[in-house]
Amino acid sequence: MTIDIILVFIILGIVIILFALEVFPVDKIAFFIMVSLLLTKLITPEEAISGFANPATITVLALMIIAIGLETNGVISWLSNGLKNLRGLPIYLMIPVFMLIAGSISAFINTTAVVIVFIKIITELSAKYNIPSEKLLLPVSFAGIIGGSCTLMGTSTNLIVNAIAIEKGVERFAFFEFTKYGVLFLVITILIVSLLYKFLPNKGKVDINKDYNLDEYITKVIINKDSEVIDKKIIDTFFYNNRDVEILSLKRDGIINNRPGKYTALKEKDQLLLGCNLENLVKLKEHKGFSVIKRESKKFTLPITDAEGLEENIQVVEILMLPNSPLIGKSIKSVGNFDLQGAVPLAIKKRRNFRHTEDRVFGKKRDEIELRVGDRLLVEVSAKALSDLGKIDNITILQQYQEIEVKKKSKRIISLGILVVVVALSAFSIFPILQSALVGVFLMIFTKCLDLGKAYSQINWQVIFLLAGMIPLGIAMSNSGADMWIADHLLALFTERSSTIIIGILFLVTMILSGFVSNNATAIIITPIAITIATTMNLDPKPFILAIMFAANFSFFTPVGYQTNTLIYGMGMYKFKHFLIVGGSVSLVLWIVASLLLSGTFTV
Question: What is the mean pLDDT of the chain?
């Protein structure tokens, strides 16, 4: 083992740890990879930036733009709109129908975009018809992932694996070449999830108090002339030191301050809108320094519409951070009225991960906590400003469904037609998938079905930078000989083993790794090794490549391997055990079936 190989393994190990612990966003990890490989001279500067010009990266970018056009013009909502008519079905029939539709659409449209639309639809159905969303969201996410594995354009993993295969001299995959396997895997997944749906939670009505660990009551008090807090800064009062009391707003001389800072000095006759638990509410009523305006304080419910208590018709709504939201990276301190269209942030519920195991993030340092994808923000908003809040790009109002506004029906038809053209150009081998996708982008812009400026704000740039950063790591593994070193040692292990065993082991290792590391990153690392093993053993490399392609997407046993699973996990409905039991069962069965199918033991 050479020094270069050791350096590659050290960098690879650090990257895997960073991915698994989510210490940094994936785009920062991508830059770490490029810089560390450059500084160790494992790659040249040209190779370091080669990922940005890689056909797979550009293809993913083009398909993202097309997906944005489809969603903007209501195509995805239109394709899934019939789901609302299924509200009368029993849940055990609703699950397979939802999964089948989600999987079918995801075969041709970006999986994340499809699942986001389904989140909105299912949330609306849950609110209006008391349909248990917990029974549907995880199955829909699984189906979207499997559906995306059915075609070459269904997921970025398929595109990156295909690009690596071409670079290694393997014949490119046709558009529908592996669809028969994907469809079978989708059917198996639907059957397993439908049988195990009782293991999914059924929480019923959302309890915002419990979910956010917020204070249980909202009340308004006036500071009396003999109060001990007069002329004191909030930071020096019990309001700041007491985790069970929160100042929501301050009214002075007719002016309402929805964001009183900790250095704001309190004055006589100030009116404070407070959130507090029952114990502190009783103390406030008994305290001579305060007058509780509303003697029977209203319990904190959703929505709050008590005009007497809150001066105006105010609602408390919950919004989910989606990829590329303009709020990502901002904290409550930096989010202003302009960012939230006049809404006032009350609390953040962080998406659970290995570093954020606590649901409550609402203490003294809450203003410094940054919003990330999958986080939920609780905001107070007036009824008239609610519609404006729903227009913010890449957020979902979980308590109120917002229809996508389609100005012209003709654009929906044209957008769908463009998708058909892209699929046809690639499926009939008229153009490679990259050219077909670029033609689709051009048509979207030329027909004015998409404003490119809007697309820039909605593109998931983290995925683009992830691909651009991981591709140089694959080059470094080749330059240093690390891929050959791993392949040689695996070949010694695989000596006299059947292709079923070899493919099965590669599939299992890839699937486990992608459960904790990005599926794209896993595919980039393992695919060259699989190709080397196949060619060294004089076997057809395509079954090995397909094993990596599918396995990288089939990490259902954790919520962190695939973005859609991360999103629904962040909504707080599921625990790790739900993915382990239901997703683990799916992954186990698919591993066995795929190993037999791809090795030629069975055929379809």
Answer: 79
Give exposure, 51-75, as e/b (b: 16+ Cβ within 10 Å). beebbbbbbbbbbbbbbbbbbbbbb
Q: Which residues lie below 8 Å from residue 197, measured CB to CB, with a gap of 6+?
A: 91, 92, 95, 135, 139
Query: Rounded CA gap, 116 and 568, in Å?
Result: 9
Count CB-CB contacts under 10 A for residue 402: 15
Q: What is the pTM of this model?
A: 0.70
Taking only the tens place, the pLDDT of each residue in 143-188 is 999 999 999 988 888 999 998 899 888 988 999 999 999 999 999 9
Beta strands in 362-406 (DSSP E): 376-382, 395-397
Maximum average pLDDT range among 3-7, 457-461, 552-556, 587-591: 587-591
User: CA 364 → CA 118, 352, 357, 527, distances in Å?
Assistant: 36, 20, 18, 47
Helix %, strand %, coil % for the chain, to 5?
55, 10, 35
Residues in the chain: 604
d(CA 413, CA 429): 24
Of 506 and 325, the structure prediction assigns the larger pLDDT to: 506
**Token output for 501:** 């065993």
CA 386, CA 365: separation in Å to the nearest integer? 28
pLDDT digits (tens, 9 = 90+) for 462-515: 788 888 888 898 889 888 888 888 888 888 777 777 888 999 999 999 999 888
Residue 304: strand, helix, or coil:
coil
Residue 363 is encoded by which pair of tokens?
């203490």
**What DSSP state is assigned to residue 83?**
G
Using a 10 angstrom Cβ sphere, with 0-12 exposed, 13-18 middle and 19 or more buried, the burial of residue 593 is: middle
- Report whether 503 contacts 11 (CB < 8 A): no
CB atoms within 10 A of CB 204: 10
> 440-453, pLDDT tens digit by residue?
999 999 998 888 87
Tokens representing 476 are: 């470094």
- Above pLDDT 90, what percent of the chain? 22
Contacting residues for 419 by C-beta, under 8 A, at least 6 apart: 66, 70, 75, 108, 109, 440
Residue 352's contacts (CB-CB under 8 Å, 6 or more residues apart) are 359, 569, 570, 572
CA separation, residue 483 to residues 305, 450, 526 (Å)? 62, 42, 9
Instruction: List CB contacts of 345: < 8 A, sequence separation 6 or more.
Output: 332, 335, 377, 378, 379
Contact yes or no for 495/594 (Cβ under 8 A): no
Q: What is the pLDDT of residues 215-234, one digit of tens each?
A: 445 667 888 888 888 888 88
Confidence tier at 240 by pLDDT (50, 70, 90): confident
DSSP state of 81: G
Question: What are the φ and ψ backbone dihedral angles of 563, each rounded to 5 degrees?
Answer: -60, -40
- φ, ψ of residue 392 to 5 degrees: the values are -65, 130
The partner residues of 290 in beta bridges, in order of sequence, read 223
As given in the structure block, the two tokens for residue 528 are 């060259």
For residue 294, is pLDDT > 60? no
Residue 133: both structure tokens together: 């969303």
